[in-house]
Amino acid sequence: MSFSAQDRPQIIKSLEKEYYDIIIIGGGITGAGIALDAASRGLKVALVEKGDFASGTSSKSTKLIHGGLRYLKQLEFSLVREVGKERAIVHHLAPHLVRPEKMLLPLITNGNYGHIMTSVGLMVYDVLANVDKEDQRKMLSKEETMELEPLLKDDVVEGGGLYAEYQTDDFRLVIEVIKASMQYNAHPINYMEVEEILEKGGMAYGVQCKDKVSNRSIEILGDYIINATGPWVDLVRSKIEKIGGKSLHLTKGVHIVVPHEKLPVKHSVYFDVSDGRMIFAIPKNDITYIGTTDTEYIGDPGDAQVNQKDVDYILDAVDHMFPSIHLKKSDIVSSWAGIRPLIAEEGKSASEISRKDELFVADNGMMSIAGGKLTGYRQMAKKVVVAVLEKKEKKSGIKKKRKCQTKRIPLPGNEFKDYTEVKKYKSELKKNNTSFDPSTIDYLVDIYGTQTNEIIKSANEIGGDQPALRLLKAEVNFSLENEMAMTLLDFYERRTGRIFFKIQSINETLEEVLPIMTKFLGWSESRVEEELKQLNDEVKLATNFE
Ligand code: FAD
Predict the structure, then answer these.
(1) How far apart, in whole angstroms, are the C-alpha atoms of residue 283 and residue 263?
(2) Which of 35, 253, 281, 391 could form a disulfide with 292 if both were Cys (CB 3.0 to 4.6 A apart)?
(3) Closest CA to 384 of 33, 28, 54, 48
(4) Which residues pair with 210 in a beta bridge?
């Protein structure tokens, strides 16, 4: 499948010429999910994203596809069951990308979770979330917990629970769902900002967008406009109506990244903070990432930054639970800040607000969807598409509802029956490609699945260079030719996650990556300077905290 800058003029031509059943604003996981659901039910779909796909909250999460243990504490059983079931489905849709991860929950003196509540809670969670037998929770004694994670604070740990979660790369999940939607003829495009909602007779009939590449304005017309702009939902709503009734409550969540040797946890740990909250420490290859915070946020979601207070909060929390570690600000190699698009609930603090999603319908017919989680993207999409189909039926009088298909649509790169096959595929690739570094093969399979075949094939066709260099070049080409990477940052952040997890590799690879992108995208000298500045600014943001 080709999805590249070179296809852009053709996509824009279609966007201007065709008439769509639905026009989705926003290319995060919510918009991507709606595009796939709607297109796979035979609807004609356009999706416009003002920045890069996943450039909003959907690349800044904790990157867990989770069963919602925290909802159990809030006694939201139906939500636990729903996200638990969803978690299993999303894992099967892309087992290479949504990977099983055991989570250790240390039980501490005066902590959030006591032994009995955790034991029963995790059991209920296993049942509600339909967890496979071998993955079901294990309750641990103090000795077993300390053996599993010797870095924990010995004098407060009373025991532990070990339970099943899934770790993912949120930005890759978005791009794969976008690519999957294209297999059903959806027309997604990045760097296309919706500036106005077009109305006739009080009803929305299209959007006016600015193509940020050419600076040209275009109009896209269609029956239903879906506002899936996450934390920007109210900003887009405010283009057509005064925000009253239900509205968004934005909160900021921050993660920091340290080299794994600085916090060498053997497992992912979900641990208590002294203010009564819980945060995660998640090991991933050479790094451990830690988060998240949850603080009120006012302003443009695009301006969110990690500040000194956020960093102090996380460092203190680590100090508290891992007393031998002594993490310092200078140990932080990267970080990110995301904005939660929560639905406001009067009298509730950031952490107390439910993560449920909601659909608002404006007088002009535009539907806005917000709240929710990465994990629940398929269910959110279903809700929107069903609402659209019902409206369509009402209008036409023809009953023609097609069922949701997305449970059975494997994401690109998934030719696996289960996770065991992913591991088998990795070992075979390593056996058959001994010149390539095995850890790079692991990295490629984790994020591209069986699309790694194409990358390795193209690396083998590139003559001359060192194997690592050939793989890198092949990876850049893949993201340019198949994943609509338009900027250096698209490649380093939202196609490969290097800025989050391997930030030092940016300097090591830029000399190779820049000329390939410059040539493919036809960048001028001044554009190259702009690109370098944008990348540099983002690296600074990830590593400097005011
Ligand atoms: P976004 O990803 O923000 O997408 C909205 C898009 O709309 C953006 O890309 C934006 O550029 C675009 N847009 C805005 N205005 C316009 C316009 N005018 N024209 C065109 N495009 C526009 N969920 C989980 O399941 N697991 C987790 O581990 C988890 N951890 C989290 C941790 C943190 C710190 C945060 C903040 C959230 C977390 N979540 C998690 C929740 C999850 O990340 C979000 O619910 C989800 O990513 C929201 O996706 P979205 O598509 O609605 O919004």
Answers:
(1) 8
(2) 253
(3) 33
(4) 193, 217
- Signed CA dihedral, 108, 110, 111, 113: sign only: positive
Identity of the amino acid at 177 = V
**CB-ligand 1 contact for 268 (6 Å cutoff):** no
> Closest Cα partner for 43 from 23, 60, 64?
23
> Pick from 236, 189, 191, 197: which is nearest to 211 by CA?
191
By CB atoms closer than 10 A (0-12, 13-18, 19+), residue 7 is middle
Question: pLDDT tens digit string along 58-93?
Answer: 999 999 998 777 777 777 777 777 778 899 899 999
State both tokens at 337.
């800040």
> How far apart, in whole angstroms, are the C-alpha atoms of residue 99 and residue 165?
8
To test the ligand 1 pocket, which listed residue (374, 377, 383, 486) has its Cβ within 8 A of the most ligand atoms?
374
Check pocket membership of 292 for ligand 1, CB cut-off 6 A.
yes
- Please give the angle made by the CA atoms of 372, 174 and 168, to the nearest 5 degrees: 80
Q: Where are the alpha helices (DSSP H) in 129-279?
A: 142-148, 170-182, 233-237
State both tokens at 157.
């740990």
Type of residue numbered 7: D
Q: CA-to-CA distance for 382 and 41, rounded, in angstroms?
A: 11
Q: Structure tokens of 8?
A: 């852009």
Count the neighbouring beta carbons within 10 Å of the beta carbon of residue 464: 6
CB 243 within 8 A of CB 365: no
Q: Give the whole-angstrom CA distance, residue 191 versus residue 13.
A: 15
3-state secondary structure of 445: helix
**Secondary structure (DSSP) of 73-84:** HTT-HHHHHHHH
Coil vs helix vs strand at 434: coil
- In the chain the first and final C-alpha atoms are separated, in Å, by 43
Using 70 as the pLDDT threshold, list the residues of the chain that sit under it: 1, 350-354
**How many other β-carbons are positioned within 10 Å of the β-carbon of residue 541?**
17
Check pocket membership of 48 for ligand 1, CB cut-off 6 A.
yes
Enter the pTM of the model. 0.97
Ligand 1 binding pocket includes 31 (Cβ within 6 Å): yes
What is the rounded radius of gyration, in angstroms, for the C-alpha atoms of the chain? Answer: 23
Return the C-alpha torsion angle 234, 237, 242, 247, nearest 10: -40
Q: Would you tell me how many other CB atoms lie within 10 Å of the CB of residue 110?
A: 10
CB contact at 8 A, 307 and 315 = no
Q: How far is the CA of 486 from the centre of ligand 1 (A)?
A: 20
User: What pLDDT does residue 1 have?
Assistant: 59
Ligand 1 touching residue 294 (CB < 6 A): no
Residue 502: what pLDDT? 97
CA of 164 to the centre of ligand 1 (A): 24
pLDDT value of position 344: 86
